[in-house]
């Protein structure tokens, strides 16, 4: 089983995340994509994050009808902030027969050399890189790397930051959020 891991805060999960995850699950050699809900990203402030269980619930709502996608809260039980290498090693121990690949945007690849144990990360897993609007080109040290593959996934410039701003200002987020997620956000008056 080849599992793609798409890490994120998913604050909130939106159609850009879903289109990307579905594309990777159905247009690459992956069998499935798991969305890894991160309680805290070491590179982002946590003061704007909804509670992790709200974010996990929204991901579950968003992917409920898609058998190609899964979700994991594995990082909820790990030390914070979460580091990708620690999560990957834990998952490899828990699922020894699975092959894992990391899914990341070009913008993350530009800073990969700053990640904890990034060399080990590249030894342990393949990295599937998708284009991001305005990203710098792939750093020279990662060009032609045998474990890094650039995937021509659809280019979408949708951000959770923009969606949170719209919600705070009472503007419509229709078509940006999956319908069940939008209903949950509105019912709980999240991001207001």
TrEMBL record:
SUPFAM superfamilies: Nucleotidylyl transferase (SSF52374). One of its GO terms (molecular function) is nicotinate-nucleotide adenylyltransferase activity. Pathway: Cofactor biosynthesis; NAD(+) biosynthesis; deamido-NAD(+) from nicotinate D-ribonucleotide: step 1/1. It catalyses: nicotinate beta-D-ribonucleotide + ATP + H(+) = deamido-NAD(+) + diphosphate. Keywords: ATP-binding, NAD, Nucleotide-binding, Nucleotidyltransferase, Pyridine nucleotide biosynthesis, Transferase. The keyword Nucleotide-binding applies. InterPro entries: Cyt_trans-like, NadD/NMNAT, Rossmann-like_a/b/a_fold. One of its GO terms (biological process) is NAD+ biosynthetic process. It is an enzyme of class 2 (transferase). Residues 6-165 form the Cytidyltransferase-like domain. Its EC number is 2.7.7.18. Transmembrane segments: none annotated. HAMAP family: NaMN_adenylyltr (MF_00244). Catalyzes the reversible adenylation of nicotinate mononucleotide (NaMN) to nicotinic acid adenine dinucleotide (NaAD). Belongs to the NadD family. This is Probable nicotinate-nucleotide adenylyltransferase. It comes from Rufibacter quisquiliarum. The gene is nadD.
């Amino acid at each position: 089983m080849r599992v793609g891991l798409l890490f994120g805060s998913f604050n909130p999960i939106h159609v850009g995340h879903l289109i990307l995850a579905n594309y990777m699950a159905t247009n690459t050699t992956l069998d499935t994509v798991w969305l890894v809900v991160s309680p805290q990203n070491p590179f982002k402030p946590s003061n704007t994050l909804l509670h992790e269980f709200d974010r996990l619930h929204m991901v579950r709502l968003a992917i409920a009808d898609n058998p190609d996608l899964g979700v994991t809260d594995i990082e909820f039980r790990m030390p914070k902030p979460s580091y990708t290498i620690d999560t990957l090693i834990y998952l490899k121990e828990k699922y020894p027969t699975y092959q894992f690949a990391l899914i990341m945007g070009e913008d993350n690849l530009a800073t990969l050399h700053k990640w904890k144990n990034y060399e080990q990360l590249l030894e342990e897993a393949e990295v599937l890189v998708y284009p991001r609007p305005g990203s710098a080109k792939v750093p020279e040290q990662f060009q032609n790397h045998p474990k890094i593959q650039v995937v021509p996934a659809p280019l979408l410039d949708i951000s959770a930051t923009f969606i949170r701003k719209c919600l705070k200002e009472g503007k419509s987020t229709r078509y940006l959020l999956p319908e069940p997620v939008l209903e949950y956000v509105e019912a709980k008056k999240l991001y207001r």
